[in-house]
Design brief:
The complex is a heterodimer of chains A (about 270) and B (about 300). By secondary structure, chain A is α+β, with helices and mostly antiparallel strands. Chain A is built from seven helices and twelve strands. In chain B, strand 3 and strand 4 form a beta hairpin. Classes of the chains: A alpha+beta (about 270), B mainly alpha (about 300). Chain A: InterPro entries: CHP02186-rel_TM (IPR019088).
Chain lengths: ~270, ~300
């Protein structure tokens, strides 16, 4: 609908808005008439071991309909947003000060997800129009922008740099064809985690759209944890720092001494 | 083959690290220095967070200086009394260094401090070493016999109070300049992840006229104990020592040092000092390039906040 109406779009914002509001209203009034999302993750726990180089998790989903669900003329669209544990990220900009390049200005992105992935069945811009991207907070750019801050131009270079650098680290990912429909109502999407993705809880939010209107939204989650030796090392280093420190020193001394025994030249 | 570093929270190629450890170990064996001044920058350029590179490197220097100290001890080329005084000063410096490191880390300025320190410290020391070794090479070419030490000739700082006699080092003088020097080395070592042998050895030779026979062994002795203290303090106060990374660096370093020591035996004194000077200066210049040349990307990211 949105795509077909593109030429008249500017004049039909109100209409589209009203339609979406109506759809939302209908969904809340008559839950039996709307679709529901059923989700399943290939795993809820990613274990970091000594050979860990990143991981991949698959989201499986089914769109459940019943006899009273209205028939849809357009196909379903799915947008999956994965958010990793939140931390503050600082973006610094270097500028020339005299002969030196120094970090002169910075922006703090407070409580920003350390990992972000937006997967969809087709480009987000085709799934929902401009105002809906803001409204439903769809797409990568929306995730890193606080509500109401979208128009502030001075923030833009920092936001762009954040997106670009995080994408280079593969901590931010956007895949407009990441969701594949196996049947018209069953889909799958792989989430790739790089080795640097931090430990903690990851939220997976799946939203169902038809004709630019959101029909259902469902969340699930998984966690990334260190296990075995890696977990033991971190626990020891943090909770028994003195013991850990002594252990490392003793190890270093023993290795150094062993070298003199093995390679004794005189 | 990749291996996950539990504290650095990243996956690195095991063989890259072993090879780096071996290469630096080779150079350190050849020159009889710890190699921290090469290893820490290499780790930083490899993408290991500077805090973890520095803290972990102190463990590697501990291991390599154990090997060195034991070797010199066996040959009795070590002054324990002077070493003890140096260690005492070194401990104070290390304590202050780790404290400074943690404060700068909290303020988010650690990376800048490390880079600036490498540029200035290595630039100055490297230039001094280069000038000195070129002068020595020039003098040998022209057949000038270097001026030997005359008795009764004493620099003013040895005349300060708290005099002590060090028989093995043929030194009688105030401990104040010795302790101060040791403190500075300990401080720099804890902040920059270096042993400081390449500063301590020439300083002991030129400032205190310590005989070359005991100077390297004594300096290694001081480095061993200050680096043990630095490892322990870093582990306790900032939890940045990565045991897996340390182990890889130590194993690589131990191997490399054996071959380096053999290669170093064929090197003449002057060319030896010239090469070391070029290395030190090179590291300083490499860091200088980072802040002088226009960066490819003016933007950089830092994530702050407690690790879970």
């Amino acid at each position: 609908m949105t795509a077909m109406r593109l030429p008249q779009m500017a004049s039909s914002w109100l209409l589209v808005g009203a339609a979406a509001a109506l759809a939302g209203l209908l969904a809340s009034l008559a839950p039996a008439a709307a679709e529901t999302l059923i989700l399943s993750l290939s795993t809820h726990r990613v274990a970091i071991t000594s050979t860990y180089t990143g991981s991949s998790i698959v989201v499986f989903g089914a769109i459940e309909r019943d006899e009273r669900t209205v028939a849809r003329a357009a196909p379903y669209d799915i947008v999956i947003t994965v958010r990793g544990p939140r931390r503050t990220t600082i973006v610094r900009e270097k500028e020339k000060v005299g002969p030196l390049w120094l970090n002169t200005s910075q922006r703090r992105f407070v409580d920003l997800p350390t990992y972000l992935a937006v997967l969809s069945s087709r480009p987000i811009g085709e799934i929902a129009g401009g105002p809906f991207l803001t409204r439903y907070r769809l797409g990568l750019a929306m995730q890193i922008t606080a509500p109401g801050m979208e128009q502030i131009v001075s923030e833009e270079p920092f936001r762009d740099a954040l997106l670009r650098l995080k994408k280079e680290q593969r901590l931010f990912a956007e895949d407009p064809r990441g969701v594949t429909f196996l049947t018209p109502t069953i889909f799958r999407a792989p989430i790739t985690l790089p080795a640097v993705a931090p430990t903690g809880n990851y939220d997976v939010e799946v939203a169902l759209f038809v004709d630019g209107a959101q029909l259902a939204r469902q969340t699930t989650n998984f966690e990334v944890v260190k296990t075995g030796f890696e977990q033991a090392t971190v626990t020891l280093a943090h909770d028994h720092a003195i013991l850990y420190g002594l252990g490392v020193v003793i190890m270093a001394v023993v290795f150094g001494w062993l070298a003199t025994v093995i390679f004794r030249r005189d | 083959m990749h291996i996950y570093l539990p504290i650095a929270e990243m996956s690195v190629n095991m063989f890259t690290l072993l090879a780096m450890g071996a290469a630096v170990g080779f150079i350190s064996g050849m020159f009889g220095v710890g190699g921290g001044f090469l290893m820490t920058p290499l780790l930083i350029f490899l993408g290991i967070p500077p805090a973890i590179a520095v803290a972990t490197q102190t463990a590697q220097i501990t291991a390599s200086s154990v090997t060195g100290t034991l070797g010199y001890w066996r040959r009795k080329a070590l002054d324990f009394k002077l070493g003890g005084v140096l260690v005492a000063g070194g401990f104070v410096g290390t304590l202050l260094g780790v404290w400074f490191f943690n404060v700068m880390s909290r303020l988010g300025q650690l990376e800048f401090i490390i880079v600036i320190s490498y540029v200035t410290l290595f630039g100055i020391i490297g230039s001094l070493m280069l000038a000195e070794s070129l002068k020595a090479i020039w003098a040998t070419r022209r057949g000038v016999v270097p001026r030997s030490r005359r008795s009764g000739e004493h620099p003013w700082y040895l005349g300060l109070p708290w005099k002590m006699r060090f028989h093995r080092s043929q030194l009688y003088g105030s401990v104040i300049p010795i302790v101060t020097l040791a403190m500075l080395i300990g401080f720099a070592g804890a902040v920059l992840g270096i042993g400081g042998g390449f500063i301590l050895v020439p300083a002991l030779i030129y400032l205190f006229r310590i005989p070359a026979a005991v100077v390297v062994g004594t300096s290694l002795f001081q480095i061993l104990f200050t680096m043990m203290a630095a490892t322990l303090l870093h582990a306790i106060t900032n939890q940045s020592v990565d045991v897996v990374l340390a182990m890889l660096l130590i194993i690589g370093g131990v191997m490399g040092a054996q071959f380096g020591a053999r290669a170093g035996q064929n090197l003449k004194g002057e060319s030896f000092r010239l090469l070391l000077a070029i290395l030190v200066l090179g590291v300083g210049i490499r860091f200088a390039i980072d802040i002088v040349v226009e960066p490819q990307d003016p933007f950089s990211l830092v994530t702050v906040g407690a690790r879970p």
